[in-house]
Amino acid sequence: MNTLVDKFGRKHDYMRIAVTDRCNLRCQYCMPEEGVKSLDHLNILSFEEILSVVKVAAKLGVRKIRLTGGEPLVRKDLESLIQMIHAVPGIEDIAMTTNAIFLADRIDALKAAGLSRVNISLDSLNEDRFRLMTRGGELKKVIQGIEKAIEKGLNPVKVNAVVIKGFNEDEIADFIRWTIHLPIQMRFIEYMPIGDSLVWKDGYYPLEEVRKIAESIAPVMDVVGVRGNGPASVFKLAGAEGTIGIIHPVSQHFCSSCNRLRLTADGKLKPCLFWQNEVDIRSYISDEEQLTNVFREVLNLKEEKHQMTEEQMSQDKTVRKMSQIGG
Known about the structure:
Domain Radical SAM core: 7-220
Protein name: GTP 3',8-cyclase
Binding site for [4Fe-4S] cluster 1: 23, 27, 30
Radius of gyration: 19 Å
CATH superfamily: Aldolase class I
Helix content: 25-40%
Strand order of the largest sheet: 9-10-11-8-7-6-5-4-3-12-13-14
GO biological process, one term: Mo-molybdopterin cofactor biosynthetic process
Strand content: 15-25%
CATH class: Alpha Beta
Shape: globular
Catalytic activity: GTP + AH2 + S-adenosyl-L-methionine = (8S)-3',8-cyclo-7,8-dihydroguanosine 5'-triphosphate + 5'-deoxyadenosine + L-methionine + A + H(+)
Largest sheet: 12 strands, mixed
Order of helices and strands: EEEHEHEHEHHEHEHEEEEEEHH
Number of domains: 1
CATH architecture: Alpha-Beta Barrel
Structural class: alpha/beta
Number of helices: 9
């Protein structure tokens, strides 16, 4: 079977697909307050075009798909796309990253269509602080989304919190205690200096402190074999229902084991979140042979590692905002 292996020997079996660049929130590290100029509808990949890309990717060994945005649930009839992807031979897992504002109302249809699991972005459990971070989001709707995802058996339900010094590091213990009675994977993610995230130039917080805080609450134990674990190192409080994950994209990058490609909402295939390198695939979508060649071309563009820890990060190599890439 054909596989997607780059020049550094990394096998790629995971693709993140941004289904829209639009979002119902304006999170401060993701986009400016006024938002970003939305793509014209005609420039957004149709479900049929996305499906064509997924079919080729699956033949090349891609097994996992994650739908992102913007906010994927602002894309009309997303359930139909999930159902289409679910039917593609070789695709084993369909996940979605969401802010969960609309999740509770649509969870039944999403699961019935074939959604396997969700990652929910939540950086504060304080209602006022959450509203400040998201510029208007309603915390209770996110909590309802998390509860519904657990109730409907999506597994695992991951909650992602970006830890920002001077903003929410005082809530780490509260998030950790959440895992005592909730069967979630609470994931703490290192703050990445990309695009509008530079609003907090001194926002870095060492995530080694997370484990220390957990140990002050209860004994901890490492956990292995967690489904969809990805780059996270996972542990749990003794006797807890849930687990705790730590992701270091900057200080302890996982580039050497990176297995992902990214497809933007306007049809650009990207080998890395950080670098500008990308290839417009729209003109190749109807030709399977050409599209296969483009996948291999994109792999050849992939760098050995990102440079978010180096001097160059201040130059903003991404050009696009985080919301336009899909994270």
